[in-house]
Amino acid sequence: MMQLGEYNTLTILRETDPGLYLGDETNDSDEVVLLPHKFKPEVYEVGGQLRVFVYKDNLQRIIATTLEPKVTVGNFGYLHCSEVTDKGAFMEWGIGKDLFIPFIEQARPMKKGNWYIVYVYIDELTERLVGSSKTQKFLDNTTLDIEKFAKVDLLVTHLTERGANVIINGKYNGLIYVENIFEDIRTGDSLPGYVKKIRDDNKIDIVLQEEGYRSIEPNSQYILDEIKMAGGFLELNDKSDPDLIKDLLGMSKKSFKKAIGTLYKNKLISIEPTGISLTDKKD
Q1: Which CATH superfamily is domain 7-65 in?
Q2: Which listed residue, 11, 16, 17, 272, has the most CB atoms within 10 A of its CB?
Q3: Are 7-65 and 151-207 in the same CATH fold?
């Protein structure tokens, strides 16, 4: 069955003046969709298959495109507001037709030119694809299918003094505490992360660096990676100026000393008068 708001692999049934008519393997006449000529690939043949995105046009007719939307139904994306009218807001979606956000689905009034985290779904009453910036109602940490140390997909929703709030695997809320952020991240960034801790209330702490050894804290892994990228030697040690450590690594001297102490204990680095260097031990 053809899925609205998602990618579908369909068979080319016939070619007409308006474009290519596509259908699924059932050949149900109700399951036929038009791919306009402007979207058809350079090479194709009747009977062959195409992977297309299926949506509704401005007249609410089901239509197919080979263009790729920035987000599909049931998922979150970071979209640009192209227009606000008396009916609602419209977001650039990547397929020519903008995604509609009703006023009632706006967490705060949207403004033309701004960017927003948006969830795409099918409205039950109108059966059309719409979006919502009220993202929290689509997230639920009640039951989790992830565990500590698991690698996860993240979408940064907003930054606060505590750190970066993220959506995890398109399902859950999470937080990267500011002391665990060692790179420039911004709202809308999609990036991998790792589960550091799942609390008793199912709140999830996330880090961006994988723990190399389970006994090595994220700061230690981060410093280890920095030494590797620097060619095996870093001009910092436990005698270095705190401001220099903060500028180069984004952490306090206390955190730095604790981290290199862990690396030294695991025989991964040697501490020298002018800096720290990798040992011959392989990770």
Answers
A1: Nucleic acid-binding proteins (2.40.50.140)
A2: 11
A3: yes
pLDDT in tens, 56-108: 988 888 999 999 999 999 999 999 999 999 999 999 999 989 999 999 999 99
Q: CB-hemisphere CA count at 13 Å for 194?
A: 15
Amino acid identity of residue 208, one-letter, is: L
Residue 21 makes CB contacts below 8 A (sequence gap 6+) with: 12, 13, 14, 15, 32, 33, 34, 35
Q: Confirm if 222 and 183 have CB atoms less than 8 A apart.
A: no
CA distance 244 to 223: 14
CA distance 33 to 79: 27
Task: Determine the straight-line distance between the first and last CA of the chain, rounded to whole angstroms.
Answer: 49
Q: What confidence tier does 213 reach under pLDDT thresholds 50, 70, 90?
A: very low
Quote the CA–CA distance of 250 and 50 in Å, as a whole number. Answer: 48
Structure tokens at 75: 């998922």
Lookup: tokens for 7: 């990618």
Q: Which of 104-108, 126-130, 150-154 has the lowest mean pLDDT?
A: 126-130
C-alpha span between 263 and 257 (Å, rounded): 10
The rounded distance, in Å, linking the Cα atoms of 240 and 243 is: 9
Side-by-side strand order, sheet with 275-278? 233-234, 275-278, 269-272
| Count of Cβ atoms closer than 10 Å to residue 61 Cβ | 10
What residues pair up with 20 in beta bridges, in sequence order?
15, 35
Mean pLDDT, residues 198-206 taken together: 96
Select the CATH number that applies to the domain covering 76-136 from these four: 3.40.30.10, 3.40.50.620, 2.40.50.140, 3.40.50.10860: 2.40.50.140
The C-alpha atoms of residue 216 and residue 31 are separated, in whole angstroms, by 55
Q: What is the pTM of this model?
A: 0.74
Strands (E), 85-150: 88-92, 99-102, 115-122, 129-132
